[in-house]
């Protein structure tokens, strides 16, 4: 039974906040398990969900975050060098993407935004495929069904509808996998996200909505579009929500595990607001210095997600020279793979534009392909006539 924040329903009256079956937010508390200085903070409900995280896994999360930041920096450099048409940086959002991405099962299906390259990395997408569409060589970068992650969505918020529809299909199949939709704070003002939450709540669909509140919807601050916390918006649809520190990889991991478990057990959708910050531009076509106070960036740089986890590893005596060397070597190798794959990416054939337009061939698309083929052949014919 789904309830609102007032706790309607006698069976919910005595349940604690953040209960697995109904993780109701109370008082807008921000869940944080790791302070900016790397101090581990205890939380009675959320600690349970990361009790299995070993020292080895902490080091692995650190490596993941360093690697995806390096991917981001390399792709930005490739764009500046004219190898990519555009790139949407994820700088500052590494903890949210790794914490959620590593919580998923292989049969869960992800519906990402254009910025969720860290989640795609967690799903096993080859790094050159991350830039295939941005180089203009393909309509999309990878086979969604091979990695269980949809192609990156440019239209703001529409992936939330796709995720909800997929989740309803999971229900029909009788499976216990979960659909996960990622979107930014700006998307919560879009009709698609609100419509998705209506359907998800109505059908109790096994979908998790992860809102990466990075404070800026391009050049508009989040406080301009919402005078309440974004997590509060979900309660209006009857969807329980959590608000976590998005720069804390452990808090994000725990919250995502709670939401996934709830969905698998038939508890319906959950909304997670991960409070983070976009430290770079919206895309490489954007200049954030025109609208953002540099003091704000400085404040958030002190909450850097990678530095935070690094500080925890140091406190635990895990930050060895060997670990640092291994992580650097991995980041260097991945960056080299990305650059090599991008620069040497084969150009698409002219007729490839007709591929994947429809799931099956039809006379309408075949007619266009025939016309375009004869158009291309006319150029080769002209060249031959000129030779004579």
UniProtKB/TrEMBL annotation:
Cross-referenced InterPro entries: Alpha-ketoacid_DH_E1_comp, DH_E1, PdhA/BkdA, THDP-binding
Domain of life assignment: Bacteria
Residue intervals passing through the bilayer: none
Domain named Dehydrogenase E1 component: residues: 65-333
Known cofactor(s): thiamine diphosphate
GO MF annotation list: magnesium ion binding; oxidoreductase activity, acting on the aldehyde or oxo group of donors, disulfide as acceptor
Region called Disordered, residue ranges: 1-30
Protein name: Pyruvate dehydrogenase E1 component alpha subunit
